[in-house]
Amino acid sequence: MTLDRDFWEGRWSQVLREHGDKVAKIPPNAWLTEAVGDLRPGRALDAGCGHGSDTLWLAARGWQVTAVDFSTAALAHARSTAETIGADVAGRIDWVEGDLAGWTPRSGRYDLVTCLYVHVAGSVEEMVQRMAAGVAPGGTLFLVGHRPIDPATGAPTPAAGQVQVSVDEAVAALGTGRWEFVVAEDRPRAQAGTGVDAVIHARRLS
Ligand SMILES: C[S@@+](CC[C@H](N)C(=O)[O-])C[C@H]1O[C@@H](n2cnc3c(N)ncnc32)[C@H](O)[C@@H]1O
After folding, report:
1. CATH class assigned to 5-204
2. Which of 80, 135, 139, 169 could be disulfide-bonded to 124 (CB atoms 3.0-4.6 Å)?
3. Is-contact 31 187, C-beta < 8 A?
4. Which of 3-7, 58-62, 198-202 has the lowest mean pLDDT?
5. What are phi and psi of 70, to 5 degrees?
């Protein structure tokens, strides 16, 4: 299975056709809300925003969000959800159709860069470095990857066959000099038997 744009467009089109109302009510990611809930709102990038629940939560808290995804269907749904919530939230979001295989944030532009559960087609280290370059000094990088194997059972998870960010690769990509690691650990997922998430929360020092 190739997790390319056609795959995701087909997946989102089907899911949104069958369960669009439920998707619009998906809560923001719990690791994210815990990590950035106390940050002062500024400019944020949500890379691989999908249905947009994290983007919407950030915008509702006053963040000016650039939300990137390569699925037209997901972006259209997320935009429509934002408009339903209200003009103030919708007005703080810039929805961008782009492929993260090459899409590069403007250097140092964002106070927060998040990238959650995005399959990486190329090198994880290269992708992490490209996203990290968008973080301003003093800003936050927040990455989550679903690990492909459940360490508790050795069984494949729903992310089996995917390349997502891991703690080791993210730490290696960022190095130690310019980043403070607030969190860099594997955490069990709330739903038993679905494996663990690699959670990386780093603050750019310079
Ligand atoms: C598993 S979903 C995660 C969505 C959201 N970040 C979340 O945590 O709920 C992965 C998302 O990444 C998007 N995606 C995957 N590869 C991408 C790429 N190369 N460029 C842009 N978006 C991509 C997909 O369209 C999908 O919306």
Report:
1. alpha beta
2. 169
3. yes
4. 3-7
5. -100, 5
Q: Which ligand 1 atom sits closest to the C-alpha of 98?
A: 21
**Percentage of residues of the chain with pLDDT beyond 70:** 100
Ligand 1 pocket mutation, candidates 8, 12, 115, 120, criterion most atoms within 8 A of CB: 8
DSSP alpha helices (H): ranges in 24-102? 30-36, 53-60, 72-85, 87-90
Q: How, if at all, do strands 179-188 and 196-204 pair?
A: antiparallel
Mutation test of ligand 1: which of 70, 126, 127 has the most ligand atoms closer than 8 Å to its C-beta?
Answer: 70
Burial 144-182 (b: 16+ CB within 10 A, else e): bbbbbebeeeeeebebeebbbbbbebbbebbeeeebebe
Q: Where are the beta strands (DSSP E) in 54-167?
A: 64-69, 93-97, 110-116, 135-146
Could you count the other beta carbons within 10 Å of the beta carbon of residue 30? 12
Which pair of tokens denotes residue 189? 């997922």
Which residue reads 């749904």 in tokens? 77
